[in-house]
Amino acid sequence: MDLKIPDTLHVDAYQMRFANVADVDLERLHALSIAVGWPHRAEDWQYLRELGHGFVALDDIDRVMGSAMWFPHGEHFATLGMLITSPRLQTNGTAKWLMQRVLAECPGMGLRLNATRAARRLYRSLDFVAQQTVFQCQGEARKPLDATDLPAGHEIRQLRPSDLDAVIAFDAPGFAFPRPVHLAKLFESSLCYGLYRGEELRAFSMSRAFGRGYVLGPIAALSPEDAIVVARPHVDAHAGHFLRIDTHVEAGPFASFVQQCGLPVFDTVTTMTLGEGVDYGTVGDEKGALYALASQSMG
Ligand SMILES: CC(C)(COP(=O)(O)OP(=O)(O)OC[C@H]1O[C@@H](n2cnc3c(N)ncnc32)[C@H](O)[C@@H]1OP(=O)(O)O)[C@@H](O)C(=O)NCCC(=O)NCCS
Question: How remote is the CA of residue 160 from the centroid of ligand 1, in Å?
Answer without folding.
Answer: 43
